[in-house]
Amino acid sequence: MLPLNTLRWPLIALYMLLALSYIEVAGQKSVLVKGKIINEFTKEPIPFSSIQWKKSRFGISTDSVGAFQLKNTQFESDTLIISYVGFEPLYYPFDSRKDTGFLLIQLSKQLVTGGVEVKSKFNKGLRWWKNIIAHKAENNPYKYSQYACELYNKVELDLNNVNRNSFENIRILKPFAFLLDNIDSITEQRPFLPVYMTETLSDYYYSNDPTKIREEVKAVQMNGIKNETVIQFIGGVNQKVNMYQDFMKIFGKEFISPINLAADNYYNFKGADTQIIKGEKYFHLLFTPKRDGENTFSGDCWIHSTSWAIQKITLNLSPTADINFVNRMSIIQEFERMPNEQWIFAKDKMIVDLSPFKKDKFTFIARKTATYRNVRLDAEEIENALAKNNKNEESIVLEQASKKDAAYWLNNRHEILNANEQKIFKMIDTLRTVPVFKKYISNLEFLVDGYKKFGKVEIGPWFKWISGNELEGMRLRFDLGTTDKFSKRLRLNGYLAYGTNDDRFKSRLAVNYRFPEKSGWSFLLSYNNDLDNGRVRFMEEDITIDNIFSQILRRSGIPQKFLGIMELRAAVTKEWTSGLSSTYSITRSDYETYSPLPKRILIRNGNTDPLINSELMLRFRYAPGERKVVTHRKAIRLKTAAPIMELRMAQGINGLLNGEYTYTKVHVGISQQFRIPRFGKITYNAYAGKIYGDSIPFMLLELHPGNEFYMYNKNGFNLMNRFEYFSDQYIGFQIEHNIEKKLLNLLPFMRKSRIRQFWTLKGVYGDMERQNKKFNRTEFGPYQLRALNTHTYLEYGTGFDNIFGFFRIDFLWRKAPPYPQGFSPTRIQPVQNFGVFGSVRLQF
Questions:
Q1: 751 CB burial (10 A radius; 0-12, 13-18, 19+)
Q2: What φ, ψ does residue 239 adopt, rounded to 5°?
Q3: Please, are residues 64 and 276 in contact by the beta-carbon 8 Å criterion?
Q4: CA–CA separation, 605 vs 53, rounded Å?
């Protein structure tokens, strides 16, 4: 046997070897597992969620920003179980040998359809909600009549459901394969490609009596694919949402707020738990819809325990809500207390998953974030800033705003950019170097918009190049105009058309000049020598025959009727403040009539001279709160909820520019589109007019707009023929009530359908002076030009829209004045008392 001291050194060496081996293994296995839990859709952190080991059976809760530091499991492989109220539990496989970095774990939102079940007799969630309502007025962050702040806005657009294999196999997309390197692959289930982002930093001033807004943009940068159609499509995310209102308008639709005074009729409430955040107690309240098919949300909010103010709220769109193209939508709002203990807005975030096609195809995710800093209530500062406005709502981009460098943005943006947002900057620089990209965008715009640009000029629209009618036969037309590369203020445009049957050329030339924006002035000079093509004066949205689709949509059995017009017009328009605009114009028109309308020689009692009229017109339009998107070609008016009023006054002057008629016209009108809480949308238009003068030809009287197409015309009478009724004094109305799904939801099988219902009613009462009746031979011979003779023409109907998301169908009935004794409908003016009409509408 060896002596003990002989074995001592080998034993010591063995112990040291074992210790080093243990240290090595322990070193490979981290003491703590660190990470963060976020919402898969919104990318927002999920605070106070539960995370635990399945095998080791211990865990913790995340902190107020969703972060955690969890003691490692003693097993080499284990499963993390992450759960949070309202989310699907997530089982996350964990391997201690591989998962050594920071874990970013995403929870998917659970689709709750049955609501929150409350088993106890005492519902603390409902009690919390009642306390919120009791203190709603005092805690409303939007109650201030004036405020100013520094506003940071960020809008991002991502292409969702990007499949790498499919992308690479599509031939036209192969040149852009490098974009796939920018795909976000944090989650393999929903990879997305960031393609657009814009951010602005501005000083913002607001006053609500009357509503005035001034935004001074001091820094702006736009990066990514700048396609106007796509950006307009996501325009709904650029709206302010106030969840303290009983009803919130989002994408033109009305949603019931969970803090509506009657929200307990629409929502189930449940008190989840209580947490201490920064030394103060907060209650966690959950809410879900009571019924399917209503415009409601599911979500949660954190309530300050002493003031009963909401510190943060998350609203997730109900999957059965009545809204088009939106697969998912989340709205997050955060508020903070000011030194005076009052609550003010701190952050708004909206995330929308938009799908113009099927849900499993490419979709767009639009993300809009707004943060507010340095909120001030100083009345004098705000009033001085708003006094600079030329109109009630004005956004000014300061000089050098688009030239801020990266260092400026790094120091001044309210939030740092994440990895996806930083990729957009690099991606767009690369994209601009690919010539085929510009070609694809140009061809797409030509197909959708109709115009093709060639530097300083453009041609189109292509759908007017070839058409046809009974008078001209085949009609060929070519348009040419200037682009903003020629001039940003001056636009020249025109067309030349030719009819193969009548062997005549027609044409138009126009010059439009916009003075600097602050002045609000614009000028138009135009020359037209063409057929009227079905257009009625001041009806810019009329369906005309001058396009390739017109003959397909025409109602059969109705002869086409034309006026030939050679017109010279000059007009000046001034856009005033507060939504007021005025137009001053002078027009000289030379008319020709074609069968089956009365011949010009008949109207002039055998005189073969031209029928010439000269007119001065003054038009006022008042549209408070209306906004416009001004392009080089036209201005697109965005609808406002306020009434729009119009006044037109015109004077015909005998002897001016060889004009032959003297008369005075007065026309007034009011129109509006507004929503009724829970009962849909109402659109109405009421108007009246009077023409003072004798022996005025029918084309200068009020021609009540008919429609000879199967396409529904919202501005006209769809069962009335063109040139069927005239008046020199009239009063009329149009009203449509879209009740959406209010009645259809009573049918259980329709609750998940997106089809909406509406009813319409249109009418006009009119008369004509005896001298004008005699002069125009109304109700005489084959022409059948009719006066209403103190009767009312009515059209009423119902129908369904939002069929497959785009289509609308109208069922209409007509009630017309009786024919005079001895007269009846003829071939020229056949009568149809019932009709079915279709149309296409893009709406949310």
A1: middle
A2: -120, 155
A3: no
A4: 100
Among 402, 399, 340, which Cα is nearest to 375's? 340
Predicted structure pTM score: 0.74
**Cα atoms found within 13 Å of the Cα of residue 23, Cβ hemisphere only:** 6
CA angle at 173 for the pair 169 and 174, rounded to the nearest 5°: 65
**Pair of tokens at residue 604:** 């002039």
CA atoms of 638 and 621, how far apart (whole Å): 15
Question: Going from the N-terminus, what domains does the chain have, and what CATH number goes with each?
Answer: 31-107 (2.60.40.1120), 146-241+358-449 (no CATH), 454-526 (no CATH), 554-840 (2.40.160.50)
Mean pLDDT per block of 10 residues along the chain (844 residues) reads 49 49 45 82 80 82 82 84 80 79 77 48 84 91 88 83 65 67 51 73 87 86 55 47 86 86 90 85 90 85 92 88 81 88 89 72 81 87 87 80 88 84 69 71 79 92 91 94 92 96 95 86 95 66 74 83 93 88 96 85 72 96 81 76 93 94 97 85 95 92 91 91 92 94 78 85 95 79 78 95 86 89 65 90 72
Report the alpha-carbon distance of residue 673 to residue 335 in Å, rounded: 32
- Rounded CA-CA distance 828/560 in Å is 9
Q: Identify which of 418, 450, 836 has the alpha carbon closest to the alpha carbon of residue 633.
A: 450
Q: Return d(Cα 268, Cα 274) in angstroms, integer.
A: 19
Backbone angles phi, psi at 773, to 5 degrees: -60, -45
Find out whether 591 and 558 touch, Cβ atoms under 8 Å. no
Backbone torsions φ then ψ of 260, nearest 5 degrees:
-60, 145
Question: What are the angstrom distances between the C-alpha of 513 and each of 454, 523, 568?
Answer: 21, 5, 17
DSSP string, 372-410: EEEEE--HHHHHHHHTT-SSSEEEEE-TTGGG--HHHHH
Q: Is 171 helix (H, G, I), strand (E, B) or coil?
A: helix
Structure tokens at 80: 């993390």
State the pairing for strand pair 146-160/103-107. Answer: unpaired
Q: Are the C-beta atoms of residues 437 and 175 closer than 8 Å to each other?
A: yes
Single-letter amino acid code for the residue at 327: N
